[in-house]
Amino acid sequence: MTLLIKTDIDRGNAWAEALAANFPELKTVNWPFDGDPAEIDYALVWQPPKGELKRYPNLKAIFSVGAGIDHLASDPDLPRGIPVVRMVEPGLTAGMSEYVVLAVLNHHRFMLDYAAQRRAKLWEEIPQVPAEARQVGVLGLGVLGRDALEKLKPFGFRLAGWSRTPKSITGVTCFHGSGGLEEFLAETDILVCLLPLTAETTGILNAGTFAKLPAGAAVINVGRGGQLVERDLLAALDSGQIGGATLDVFQKEPLPEDHPFWEHPRVFMTPHVASMTVPQTAVRAIVANIQRLEAGESLQHVVDLKRGY
Ligand code: NDP
Ligand code: OXD
Hints:
Blueprint: E1 2-6, H1 9-22, E2 27-30, E3 42-45, E4 61-64, H2 70-73, E5 84-85, H3 90-108, H4 111-119, E6 135-139, H5 143-152, E7 158-163, E8 173-176, H6 177-186, E9 190-193, H7 207-212, E10 217-221, H8 230-239, E11 242-247, E12 267-269, H9 279-294
Parallel strand pairs: 1-2, 1-3, 3-4, 4-5, 6-7, 6-9, 7-8, 9-10, 10-11, 11-12
Helix pairs in contact: 1-9, 3-5
The structure holds NADPH dihydro-nicotinamide-adenine-dinucleotide phosphate and oxalic acid.
The site of oxalic acid has 6 residues, from loops.
């Protein structure tokens, strides 16, 4: 059994080591692979070149290094009929919840304002707002959205979530579908996007969405850059309809040097690092899945490519 690893070199080595330690029977090879393509049974990939995966005629499953699989779904030459497995692992989930809690608290406690005051050498108090006076709304109630909401619970915010299909989560007011979006947005002071990038979610963070939020709401985008209409956010920040934003993902990554977000005083940004898959913990999910498939059982966390996530 051979698994092809296509990620960046440093992480590729970490994966190879973690797989060797947990599954010595599995041979791993790094991409680019110049051996016999028929030798490859499995692929573990992040943003492989388009068409690359159809080179391997005996591929049994494609594992995405990330939770998002838009980097695979957007490949018109992705081999059909081969299951694509998204990443669900405790290290990735924990990292995302840390980031979301940090970003929510940053907006809740006016850290962008205090950063501006610091630059201006201003010593001024902004009255504290009790957590229960704010609603945090999470777009996407999947593995990551639900965990982030759980981790936000102890702070006492009003919590809401929005998904495609109906959900019931203790302590969270749940909305679903296009019919539920407006009501969800109307009360959301801090909006967190944890949606997968699909045809339906592309551009969902747009002027119309911002207008439905309470004036001065904060936007945190940790889903995908394609979900945010960047010029609409800039306009909403200028008008004050959006009070501040935390952005981890962008239309174009790395963010171009001349992009207005770099210097914007109401934007806090990071370079697509909200969370990272941890090979040492993630490897267990991959090994368990390969063992299931080899034993004739079904794989876990297979995505529906038609649905897009
Ligand atoms: P899941 O597949 O577990 O959850 C996706 C959620 O989005 C589900 O609740 C789903 O609804 C909802 N959803 C999908 N389409 C729609 C729609 N059209 N309308 C309303 N809701 C919709 O994904 P994860 O939670 O594991 O990951 C979410 C995303 O986070 C990833 O796809 C990736 O893009 C991003 N991510 C970003 C990282 C970063 O570092 N910035 C790191 C990891 C992930 P339903 O439950 O009804 O199916
Ligand atoms: C992911 C990511 O999808 O890191 O896991 O963006």
